[in-house]
């Protein structure tokens, strides 16, 4: 395990990055991606993260930082500031997308005194930004707000971690970036995707026919998206007490029925596809155990050690106090055998513990014959540091 950044101090800091940084930083919200074979730096790992004055979200004096590795995560570059907090603006919740053209995209939000629940005008105190880089060091930035924000939008942001480029023939080259969207005047959120068919030069939000709201998972939050073998797209959103899922059969233009599967305390997780299997890194507090230690289909009911049941439909449980704790990061492998009525038939491996201590957000990507994972961890809280590891598959 490599400590990407430890809250309270700075790792090696690039000399150009000094200034406009909090003196006692809290590092949060990891993003992770690897440059494609078409890049001048094939295989280069890039990690991005928030540099916060404390653990709180925007608004605030939050900067974005990056580090890169050219040896599969064994060593890392000095910390570089991607976007410093200045002139009242803070930046956060980055997501990285590696394109087949060899470019890296960083999508993130900018805020000046606004949070997600405030009503904002497009481009005023809440903006949606994108960075383009050929090496992870030098960046050009564009403002995507006008492309993705319409009069029905109360607020939205890019879900942190990573987006994807579709590889299957029917939508090859399309970029998908998870978003969290809220209608103007509403408190209900929706987990969806933004789409680009030209390598990130322009973006759009798919909408249901006859409606202004995007398509996706109603009531969803931060999510991850993957392309399944055969080309279907799987969207998975954080939710308590189970993650919410939906399938798209048209490259993210629409999504089918939503269902709840896989225990979750409501925390952003990592999702990837490796060798035709789904890789999920999420929290699974040890106070809860599965009904069976054997691999089993999605939909198995969970119970706590005292026997209290978790009710996915009601979203409540007598074990809420234990279940809400952010700890015990695990990895599961899911096998997809078929898609029936919009719902995949999946079986999951028993959870493999990655970090048995306090932990929170994670992101996972394939890296050669391994899985690369970055996550939040700590001793006194889940936000003490950012860690990186390589897991043999």
Automatic annotation (TrEMBL):
* Biased segments, Polar residues type: 298-308
* Domain of life per record: Bacteria
Annotated CDD domains = Sialidase_non-viral (cd15482)
What are the boundaries of the region Disordered?
A: 298-323
**MF-aspect GO terms:** exo-alpha-sialidase activity
Q: Write out the GO cellular component annotations.
A: cytoplasm; membrane
What is one GO biological process annotated to this record?
oligosaccharide catabolic process
EC number(s) reported in the record: 3.2.1.18
Reaction(s) this enzyme catalyzes, per UniProt: Hydrolysis of alpha-(2->3)-, alpha-(2->6)-, alpha-(2->8)- glycosidic linkages of terminal sialic acid residues in oligosaccharides, glycoproteins, glycolipids, colominic acid and synthetic substrates
Q: Which family does it belong to?
A: Belongs to the glycosyl hydrolase 33 family.
Q: What is this protein called?
A: exo-alpha-sialidase
The record lists the organism as Mobiluncus porci
């Amino acid at each position: 395990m490599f400590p990407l950044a430890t809250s309270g101090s700075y790792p090696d800091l690039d000399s150009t990055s000094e200034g406009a940084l909090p003196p006692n930083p809290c590092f949060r919200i990891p993003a992770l991606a690897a440059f494609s074979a078409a890049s001048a730096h094939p295989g280069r790992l890039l990690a991005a993260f928030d540099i916060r004055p404390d653990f709180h979200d925007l608004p605030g004096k939050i900067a974005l930082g990056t580090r890169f590795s050219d040896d599969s995560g064994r060593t890392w570059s000095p910390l570089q500031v991607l976007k410093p907090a200045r002139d009242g603006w803070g930046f956060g919740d980055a997501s990285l997308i590696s394109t087949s053209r060899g470019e890296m995209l960083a999508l993130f939000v900018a805020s000046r005194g606004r949070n997600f629940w405030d009503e904002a005008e497009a481009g005023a105190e809440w903006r949606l930004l994108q960075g383009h880089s050929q090496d992870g060091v030098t960046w050009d930035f564009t403002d995507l707000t006008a492309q993705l924000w319409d009069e029905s939008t109360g607020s939205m942001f890019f879900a942190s971690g990573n987006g994807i480029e579709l590889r299957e023939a029917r939508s090859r080259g399309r970029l998908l970036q998870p978003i969290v969207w809220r209608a103007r005047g509403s408190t209900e959120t929706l987990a969806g995707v933004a789409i680009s068919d030209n390598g990130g030069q322009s973006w759009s939000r798919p909408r249901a026919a006859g409606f202004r709201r995007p398509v996706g998972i109603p009531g969803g939050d931060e999510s991850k998206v993957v392309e399944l073998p055969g080309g279907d797209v799987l969207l998975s959103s954080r939710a308590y007490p189970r993650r919410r899922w939906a399938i798209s059969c048209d490259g993210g233009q629409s999504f089918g029925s939503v269902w709840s599967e896989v225990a979750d305390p409501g925390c952003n997780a990592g999702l990837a596809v490796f060798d035709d299997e789904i890789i999920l890194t999420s929290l699974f507090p040890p106070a809860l155990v599965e009904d069976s230690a054997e691999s089993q289909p999605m939909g198995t009911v969970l119970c706590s050690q005292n026997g209290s049941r978790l009710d996915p439909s009601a979203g409540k449980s007598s074990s809420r106090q234990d279940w809400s704790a952010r700890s015990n990061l695990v990895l599961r492998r899911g096998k997809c055998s078929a898609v029936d009525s919009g719902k995949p038939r999946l079986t999951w491996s028993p959870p493999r513990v990655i970090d048995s201590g306090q932990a929170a957000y994670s992101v996972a990507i394939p890296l050669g014959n391994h899985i690369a994972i970055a996550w939040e961890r700590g001793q006194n809280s889940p936000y003490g540091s950012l860690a990186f590891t390589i897991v043999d598959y």
